[in-house]
């Protein structure tokens, strides 16, 4: 209702405002109008371009051909065992990364000697490419679980260390001073203040660590292993099957996207639930 | 009975660069406060008031002199601290923020005590909310409730209303008088607002910009006091004149 007791539409009609201004307008960019619309548009466009490229060029598999190949791999009983072994290596490797990365990051923020002792080593870890590590562990340990897990740890831990270190140094000093004034014990300060203040940094670091670690495991499996998703992709590379390589690429992508969307997104959302009203630190 | 004793307390901040002079934040601060008393340190910004409070709380150490806080019972005195900003853990609910500083009793007892003190500042209904969902004034009231919940021997308050709008600050000053009269705590309050000091205090320690106490005044006006009380305005004017007298020789020089 407007101020005089009439509706806004009645007021608009009395003021000769054209009717089309009072009805919702569909933007010519409606397919990009919301985040969901933009996401679905991008997916459809990607599939269309892929299908077109696959139909035009002989060396590029089509999406349909890739899915058909994957179904065949299922029937041959190759998908589940190879995915399981790669996931097993990833869970072990990334669990070690989580413990080591957080512990080293906090230690570097807490003790300057640890910080200066490890700074260069962390830099080496970040800059040395994963494929060098992959070749080294294949030469050292051959076909085993130790190689992929080791490369996952050495490639992914530095990412988490850097983020955790940043989080630990960003813990608000005023809240620490408040805790000291109230004589809050060290353990409670750590659980209630230090860890929660770092959680977003740790989550962001672990997200990149998962990408780096997963990629490292696949590399080792590609170069020197007889089981796993990377091995199977390499198998079809040797057989010069484009559909085979693409099918296993799809498996790698589905695993990492599922983990990111189902696990990481939920964790990040949970730790952000308090950010109502945009407040960050008191 | 709670007692605060300061004897010739000095605080010097060392130079941060070669060629700089050290900074004398406090020079020979001595006084005693005891029992149900509301003592206010009032002085210009940068005169060392907040530094003194930090030293009483144990966050900082004096460079020289002694500071003693005796509790009502044996053992370490309990000290509550209300800061300029509320300093609440933003990722914890209001009730969790209360429980965070409580260390005695079971979880249920601490939760019950937290709720009781939230009720005392009329914020019981916000227990499950996050600090970011509250207004600045409500957050500061949570800070006051948190300080009272430890049932402190000494309550320190560092310009707790300086970040709030005038109307909210006025209401909280009235509420603080009520809480102080009800709880009987010893309060050490810091402000640069003379009106606020007169309104709340039973005793005012006037500090110069050199970090010295130059006047110790008893404020013998009945509680509760209002900003509009005539006697409050008169007392405020007298104190402002004392500050002017104190600072005049320096301005002339």
Structure overview:
The complex is a heterodimer of chains A (282) and B (253). Chain A has 282 residues and is an all-alpha fold. Chain A has helices at 8-14, 35-56, 63-75, 79-110, 112-127, 130-141, 146-169, 173-181, 186-224, 229-238, 242-271. In chain A, helix 4 runs antiparallel to helix 5 (112-127). The radius of gyration of chain A is 26 Å and the shape is flat. With 253 residues, chain B is an alpha/beta fold. In chain B, the strands form 2 sheets. In chain B, strands 5-6-7-3-8-9 form a 6-stranded mixed β-sheet, sandwiched between helices. A 3-stranded antiparallel β-sheet of chain B has the order 2-1-4, with helices on one face. In chain B, helix 5 links the parallel strand 6 (154-158) and strand 7. In chain B, helix 2 (94-100) crosses helix 3 (107-120) and helix 3 (107-120) packs across helix 4. The N and C termini of chain B lie far apart (45 Å). Chains A and B meet through helix 8 and helix 9 of A and strand 5 of B.
């Amino acid at each position: 209702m407007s101020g005089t007791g009439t509706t806004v539409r009645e007021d608009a009609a009395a003021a000769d405002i054209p009717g089309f201004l009072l009805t919702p307008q569909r933007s010519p960019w409606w397919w990009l109008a919301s985040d969901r619309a933009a996401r679905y548009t991008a997916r459809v466009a990607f599939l269309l371009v892929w299908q077109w490229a696959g139909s035009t060029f002989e060396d590029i598999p089509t999406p349909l051909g890739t899915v058909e190949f994957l179904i065949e791999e299922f029937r041959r009983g190759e998908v589940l065992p190879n995915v399981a072994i790669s996931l097993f290596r990833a869970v072990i490797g990334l669990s070690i990364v989580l413990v080591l990365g957080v512990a080293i990051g906090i230690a570097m923020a807490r003790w300057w000697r640890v910080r200066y002792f490890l700074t260069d080593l962390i830099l080496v870890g970040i800059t040395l490419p994963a494929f060098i590590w992959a070749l080294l562990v294949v030469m050292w340990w051959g076909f085993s679980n130790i190689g992929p897990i080791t490369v996952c740890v050495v490639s992914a831990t530095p990412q988490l260390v850097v983020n955790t270190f940043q989080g630990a140094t960003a813990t608000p000093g005023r809240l620490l001073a408040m805790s000291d004034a109230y004589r809050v014990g060290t353990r409670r300060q750590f659980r209630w203040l230090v860890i929660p203040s770092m959680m977003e940094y740790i989550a962001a670091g672990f997200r990149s660590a998962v990408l780096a670690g997963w990629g490292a495991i696949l590399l080792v499996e590609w170069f020197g292993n007889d089981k796993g998703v990377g091995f199977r992709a390499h198998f079809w590379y040797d057989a010069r099957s484009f559909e085979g390589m693409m099918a296993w690429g799809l498996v790698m992508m589905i695993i990492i996207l599922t983990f990111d969307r189902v696990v990481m997104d939920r964790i990040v959302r949970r730790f952000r639930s308090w950010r109502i009203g945009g407040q960050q630190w008191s | 009975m709670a007692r605060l004793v300061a004897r010739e307390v000095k605080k010097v901040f060392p130079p941060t660069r070669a060629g700089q002079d050290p900074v004398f934040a406090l020079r020979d601060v001595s006084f005693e406060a005891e029992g149900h008393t509301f003592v206010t340190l009032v002085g210009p910004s940068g005169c060392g008031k907040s530094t003194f409070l930090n030293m009483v709380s144990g966050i900082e150490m004096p460079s020289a002199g002694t500071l003693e806080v005796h509790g009502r019972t044996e053992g370490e005195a309990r000290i509550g601290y209300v800061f300029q900003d509320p300093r609440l853990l933003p990722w914890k609910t209001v009730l969790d923020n209360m429980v965070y500083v409580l260390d005695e009793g079971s979880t249920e007892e601490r939760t019950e005590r937290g709720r009781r003190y939230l009720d005392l500042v009329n914020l019981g209904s916000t227990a499950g909310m996050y600090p970011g969902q509250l207004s600045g004034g409500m957050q500061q009231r949570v800070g006051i409730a948190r300080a009272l919940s430890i049932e402190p021997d000494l309550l320190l308050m560092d310009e707790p209303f300086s970040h709030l709008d005038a109307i909210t600050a006025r209401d909280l000053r009235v509420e603080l008088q009520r809480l102080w009269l009800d709880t009987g705590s010893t309060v050490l309050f810091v402000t640069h607002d003379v009106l606020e000091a007169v309104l709340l205090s039973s005793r005012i320690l006037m500090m110069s910009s050199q970090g010295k106490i130059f006047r110790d005044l008893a404020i013998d006006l009945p509680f509760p006091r209002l900003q509009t009380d005539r006697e409050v305005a008169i007392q405020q004017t007298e104190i402002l004149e004392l500050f002017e007298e104190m600072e005049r020789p320096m301005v002339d020089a």
